[in-house]
Amino acid sequence: MKKRTLALLLSSLMVMTSLTGCGGKGDSTGASAGETKTLKIAAFEGGYGKVYWEKLKENFEKSHEGVTVELTVASNIEEVIRPQIQAGNVPDFIYLATGRPDALTETFTKEQGLQDLSNVLNMKVPGEDVTVKDKLLPGFTDSYATNPYGDGKTYLLPLFYSPTGLFYNKTLFAEKGYELPKTWDQMFALGDKAKADGISLWSYPTAGYLDCMIPPMLAAAGGEEAFKDAMNYKEGFWTSEPATKALETVGKLKDYLDPTVVANANNQSFKNNQQLVLDNKALFIPNGTWLPDEMKDAPKADGFEWGFMAYPAFKDGGDQYSVSFIEQMYIPKDAKNKELAEEFMAYIYSDEAVKIIAENAKGVVPVKGSMEIANQYLEPLQVELLKMYDNGAKALLGVFAATEPVEGLTYSDIYVGTVDSVMTGDKSVKDWQTSLQEATDKMRANIIKN
Question: What does UniProt give as the signal peptide span (predicted)?
Answer without folding.
Answer: 1-20
